[in-house]
Fold each of these.
Amino acid sequence: MLKPENYQLAPQTHHIEPEKKQLAPDGQPFQLSTLKNRQGMTTTLMDWGATWLSAVLPLADGEKRELLLGCQTPGDYLHQSAYLGATVGRYANRIARAQLQIDGQLHLLLANQGVHQLHGGPDGFHARRWQISRQSPQQITYQIHSADNDQGFPGDFTATVTYTLTDDNRMEIDYLATVDKPCPVNLTNHAYFNLDGEGHDARKQTLQLFADRFLPVDSDGIPCAELTSVDNTGMDFRQPKTLAQDFLKDRDQQRVKGYDHAYLLHRTCGATDNPAAHLWSADSKVKMSVYTSAPALQLYSGNFLAGTPNRSGGEYASYSGVALESEFLPDSPNHPEWPQPTCWLKPGKQYRSTTIYHFFAL
Ligand code: BGC
């Protein structure tokens, strides 16, 4: 049975005095940066959580369309548990029972979803100030330092995320990280897309996802079976179809109120030359193609978005946006047998991951 109290995080409860509304929990202002390209596309980012706030695409008919879910003010981001646009780490998605095995020894992380760890722990990178280390009109780099044992993770850790808006409307996101003790690393961005704009049911979008297998999960979102073929299931997006078409058709979806599953992508050795997915708006005016070097893509249909503050001062309904998160498979540190590169970063090595969201006005 679905246990939403376990599955979903309680909304964060930082209390903010009205006069301090636009200060982050560290007492400093949020710093927003806008990237703009020659085609007039703009994207806005924030140092708190290295968060991608907005992507506005000029359409052929002159409309400027916001393609990302987001909040009205930076302070509102503290009052949601949907990870809207945030950079998630050290380990995106779930680590079962918040447990790792290191040299045969049990190593405990901080749990924040019942007994499990979700998206890097209670004080993960989405809830931290990142430093701007480089900035130009079409590119920004944020850096974070995370001390040994932060959220239970081993090793002194440093990561950068670079957002680049190219002149052909690609948002390129590049992650680099190093650590001085072996540590699992899985950095991603948690943007939710609605290519029709705010206020539309995101399930009307059409998706194509180049994966033959997905990972079944239990009602806590923890992998509960082997990688499974999408053949003859509603999980199959190899041919384009709307998210609505087979919505809740499978028991796998019913357990988690919709799509919230990792798909193992066709090529698993890390390349960005073939698309991982395409998404089309219901009105056929916008297309987005996703490329990633990561082995898997988490498809999340916004099953628990209800109550999340939106851009117009109201609240999102569930299924208002869809997230396509580039990742290692969930709970990979505990599944070395899965057919993907290792998620363990070793001292002296560098973690590198790239994801590209390419937008088209049709
Ligand atoms: C997870 C969902 C979770 C959401 C927001 C997604 O990446 O897969 O289960 O509810 O993030 O926390």
Amino acid sequence: MDLLQSLANEFAVSTDKMNEVAQNFKKAIENGLKGGKSPLLMMPSYIGKPSGEESGTFLAVDMGGTNVRVAKFSIKDRKITKIAEVSSGLRSNDGTWDYTTSKTTAEELFDFFAGKIAQIVGPGEKYLLGHTFSFPTKQTDINTATLLMWMKEISVTGAVGKNPNQLLLEALKRKKLDVKPCAIINDTVGTLLVAACQYADADIGTILGTGHNTCYAEPSHPVTGKPMIVNMESANFDWELPFTEYDNLLDAASNKPGGARLEKMVSGVYLGELVRIILSRLASQGSLLKDNSKLKSTYSEKNSLPSKEVSEFIRNRNYIELTFDCSPKEAEMIQNISAMVIKRGARLAAGTYIGTVLHIDPELRNQHMVAVDGSIYEKMTGFKEELRRGLDEALGNKADKIRAQLVKDGSGAGAAVAAAMVTEN
Ligand code: GLC
């Protein structure tokens, strides 16, 4: 068998496999809800779907990875309007400062956020603030969460075990701002909240971006007996996933070996790295890139191949020839390898969405909208299409019951919706 064919076999996710992922995921949801053994954290969010009556002007902080955004939104009649926004990377381009490493303390990080908030709050103004904080937290109410661990290769000191909204409140006080955090949510939850303002059938929120995770509206939550959105932290799902030797290499070299195994197959922080590992391994075995000098000079470091480039590899074979100084045949091979990694990610995600819907509606009687945000879904060449194709194949004649739809800025606007929901009660 030729190399490409054997790689294609390793990376293939058949229709049966997608359905198996769906069943395993559903089982993981059900075990997790009962507090049983599950790779899904199944975190209660202490918030349900919006009523549509929410109104007012609120601040939002969106901290999800290597960027922070602060914004002001007005909400009325289910319409959410952005009035102001400031965003910033957490690292400078020239490497002079970096708020993501263990050299930064939690106080320094939250002071940085408060500094951004100060830019959109006028003198004497008073606001409530919703905070989208997209890392695993254990919540005990809508405004109290404990950071369990950093993800997405962030490692700021002194934040794990603390409530990010308390840290934010203290930083706001240091800046003498009259702004009170009143809600903390995950970005998946924000995406679902924003979608639910407009679409009655939205019951799943998911991020396919730097990271990956999914939440859904549990019709009757065991803790409260009421509807509640559950943040599954599904990055960690790992039951019977089709790991290859390349996934294992990536995992072993990551900040968190053994963790976030699904995320390592579908999300932006890892997809480029996975392609890099495959190419480097094949080149070192002599099966690809006979002249590997460009690969060595540009892509020898961990994380040196961004997912954005993978998107370009799939779109444009000439770009590959230029990037690697390789033959058209080798470029074709690299293009195919990139496409199969992306296709696999999309089909695994599809399996988890089907599993979630089957938990809510085992006979697929109703319509379900999966609200999706994130750069992988939005921009990765072929991802959306493969996801849809995966859903169609696995669902057969029920395929029209599940639709995935891009909902932009759920994490920003969703925080404002959450703040509005708190004040409504
Ligand atoms: C990571 C975080 C999760 C977040 C996801 C998408 O998996 O743990 O909380 O929702 O990334 O940003």
